[in-house]
Amino acid sequence: MLPIERQKQILNWLNEEGTLTITEISNRLNVSEMTVYRDIKQLMEANKINKTSRGISLASIANVSSNTCTYCLKELNNRHPVQIITHDQKVEQLCCPHCGLLRYRDIEKNVSQIICRDFLQNTTISAKLAYFLMDSDFNLNCCQPQVLTFDTLKYAEQFQKGFGGVIFQFNEAVEEILKRMSGDRGCGCHK
Asked: Tens digit of pLDDT for each residue in 56-86?
């Protein structure tokens, strides 16, 4: 199992259970405790987890500034933010659809709603009904690969004619961003 896969699994367990010890993680993943320490070191540096007296737990979203993306910790870009609302009514602010899609995948079982903005109209829309454009020649200097959202396929196709790119629906966009992030393309996020 790759380090990024182990880290995702650790985050999933923490999401479900709250707190884990290094020994528990080591036994579950069948790796050494040193490997677990290397994995959690990266998660701590990304402010995704905290060390506690009982082991590790997810970092409190309250510790993140309200002007900061909860995924990549960049300052929020008001042009195309994403909000995730969990079943327990917590609201996470994300700087862009790129981070929104990645964070959604991390916590999708706990997501009640995911909301974004139409890039052209600046109207609030459900991300699950939106169209996502990747690889356009329009650069917003945010996380890479850049993702733009549109309320309708018509708007996405019109923008695509001028700036290129590939259009995806929500589930396709989630899978595509994950595929790209696990490959060798990398991104402009903290990872």
From this structure: 888 754 444 567 888 887 777 667 889 999 8
Place of tokens 């079943």: 87
CATH of the domain at 50: 1.10.10.10
* Cβ 142 vs Cβ 77: under 8 Å: yes
Q: Which residues contact 23 (CB under 8 A, 6 or more apart)?
A: 33
Q: Is 101 helix (H, G, I), strand (E, B) or coil?
A: helix
The residue among 118, 124, 63, 66 whose CA lies nearest residue 95 is 66
Whole-model pTM: value is 0.64
Question: Is 76 inside a domain boundary?
Answer: no
DSSP letter (8 states) at residue 186: -
Helix (H) / strand (E) element for 19: namely strand 19-20
Rounded to whole angstroms, the Cα distance separating 70 from 95 reads 8
3 state SS of 85: strand
Task: Report the number of distinct structural domains present in the chain.
Answer: 2
